[in-house]
Design goal:
This protein is mainly alpha-helical. It has helices spanning 20-47, 55-80, 97-122, 134-145, 147-166, 180-191, 196-199, 202-226, 230-255, and strands at residues 11-14, 170-173, 176-179. Strand 2 and strand 3 form a beta hairpin.
Amino acid sequence: MNAIAAPTPFIALTGFHFRLWPILLAGVLMEAVLIGGRELARLLLKLGPEGFYVGWTFMATALFFQALFAYLCILIMRRVLPEADDHIRWPPDRSYAGVALFIGIVMGLVMLLADYWPEIAAARAPSTPYDVAPLPATAMLVALLCTGFAEETLFRGLMVGMLVVLVPGRLRVGKIDLPIAGYFVALLFGIAHWESFVVDPLHLAIAQQLYAFVWGLIYVWLMERSKSLLAPIISHGVGNAVEVGIVMWMIVHLRST
């Protein structure tokens, strides 16, 4: 008689070795890169010409320094943890760029609904103080398209790359099989948006934590499938730009009606 195969469990954790200190180290690096980049950008812009410290210049400058700091950390990681894969390479096979573009658009729409559903339901302009004049609005959207270069280099390239080695293991849920490091970094990715609990209503802050966690897992999936950071960089930037672009459109058109 043929043996009956045991059913595959819906959830399976394999090869997991928990260590707390690498997770704490990843959190410290996250805050150091994000806060360090923002504060250095703020300092330099305040020292610059009057009127140059505006929304898009601050975002672009902060992203530049965050990407730079994250990459410097990756250079150190390559020396002290050579088995870690930062995925900073051109995709060796399929790029998943088209999939990433589609996912990014969907992400932008989901974030729009989660963050602005009261305004959408009431057909009123959001109160978000974006400068919607053509030049600064375009510059802001371009900066948002580039957010992935900073945040994916930090979260997926550095933090996931490091934790895959130091906190090994994989968690499969249904057909989704990801490194356990990706789940920890997705949680840290949500924590990085903690300020939403200070500036936003509680339900919006909770929604941002939830979608930040899900997005973090999707970015890891794109990175593993493409063996590169290119796809998550595309998806991340497009999602942010789509949401803010629609918000700017709402500000212009709903305030004029």
